[in-house]
Amino acid sequence: MTLQPINRQSIPDEIFAQLAGQVLSGDRTPGESLPSERTLSEALGVSRAAVREALGRLDRARLIQVRQGGSTVVRDFRAEAGFDVLPLLLVHGGDVDRATLASVIEARAIIGPQVAALAAARANDDVRARLRTVVDELEAESEPVQRMWRVVGFWELIVDSAESIAFRLLFNTLNQAYVPVLDVLVNVMAAEVNDIEHYRWLAEAVAAGDEGGARSAAAELLGLGSAAFAELTDQLADPR
């Protein structure tokens, strides 16, 4: 749990990353007091202003609680933090957390079908045309990572068509967690990403205002990725 000196001065992002990583990994436990600003600035080799800014960010993320005139304590992030902590949980310390990634895959499979149904109920003519165009572009794209980016764009259209700010903000957070590991997932998600017919089915269901069809198409499509990820997880757990 030793803090590592920061090589450059006044870099709150790096301070935030170190301390957030310690909280999320369990190296710092709920209720534990953090060292004072002075102690942290000396240990990290940075200014107190940089430490103060990083602590403010950690407080806003509900990873710590900065008490006025008192100690700064670690919060129980599982009980108190918001959805915006998910990207930090997924990648910290330079590694992808497999359990968190599984949770992201699971969440998209549950949320996606309902969002697709809302999109079918609310999409306008412009969105319907754009969805068909995106599917054509997806089919024409042969480079695996670029095809995954086009899939992200497809789902962004679906979410926007649903006209739900709550789902849009959830999508943003899932996206922030998902996009940094696209390169890692490119082979695992190939079965889902390459199934053009399911994307076309979903686009046509949304265009037709078919809520049930859109829900079914999304569920089957996202289920392909979920199944592939589950298979990989089983292989890693039992490499025989």
TrEMBL record:
CDD domains, sorted: WHTH_GntR (cd07377)
Keywords: DNA-binding, Transcription, Transcription regulation
Name recorded for this polypeptide: GntR family transcriptional regulator
InterPro entries, per database record: GntR_C (IPR011711), TF_FadR/GntR_C (IPR008920), Tscrpt_reg_HTH_GntR (IPR000524), WH-like_DNA-bd_sf (IPR036388), WH_DNA-bd_sf (IPR036390)
Single GO term (MF): DNA binding
